Amino acid sequence: MKKLMLTLVFVAGCGLSLLAQVKKTEKIQQDEVPVSVRLAFEKDFGQAPQDGTWTVSYTMVTEGARTSAKPMWYQFTKGRGAEKIEVRYTPEAKLESSKGLTKVEDASR
Fold it and tell me: Is the distance from CB of 76 to CB of 56 less than 8 angstroms?
């Protein structure tokens, strides 16, 4: 019986810790995207198409009494189906993935 109770407490504790780290995604305006991410996008692909949307995926992190949002990535999306564009950057402005756009070649190479 003791083992069952300890197991249940352990499972409940693990579940609560996983719940605290739920990934959330929100649509944001282009001026809310960090400048480093926007500059990396322009360097890699040129100007972002006008009718696309930016989203941020983040987790909530609690440190002591303070809770803050920790971004996981920023994503630009436009279109659907075969013409869909998706570009994802880390908060450090490193290209994580891209679909539907061709990277601009650097002319200085």
Answer: no
